[in-house]
Amino acid sequence: MLEVRVCVGTNCAYKGGLHILEYLEEEKDLQEKITLITCNCINKECKPDFSPIVVVGKEMIKKATLNKVLVKIREELYT
Fold first, then answer.
1. If both were cysteines, with which of 12, 16, 44, 67 could 51 make a disulfide (CB 3.0 to 4.6 Å apart)?
2. Torsion angle of C-alpha atoms 25, 27, 29, 34, degrees rounded to 10
C-alpha cells in the first residue's frame, strides 16, 4: 500500500488540501491501493507559500494540486 499524507492544517486546508483529501477518499480505484492519512502541519514546510502539502510515499509535493498528486500516485503505483 502506498502511503499518502494530506495536511489539513489551516493554510493547507484553505488552499485546497481538503479538496484533494475528499477526492482521494471517494476515488474507488485508489481505495485499495493507498493508505490515506491526514495530518496537521508537516514540519516547517507548511507555510502559506508552500501549501497545500501532500506527501506521496517519500516525496513531498509543495503547492499540491489534485493533478500533481494523482500523477505522483500513478508513478509510484505503476512504475
1. 12
2. -30
What are the backbone dihedrals phi and psi of residue 68, each rounded to the nearest 5 degrees, phi first? -60, -40
Confidence of residue 16 (pLDDT cuts 50, 70, 90): very high
Eight-class DSSP state of 72:
H
Over the stretch 29-79, which tens digit does the pLDDT of each residue have? 898 999 999 998 876 666 778 999 999 999 999 999 999 999 999 999 988
* Whole-angstrom distance, CA of residue 56 vs CA of residue 53: 10
Alpha-carbon 21 to chain mean position: 7
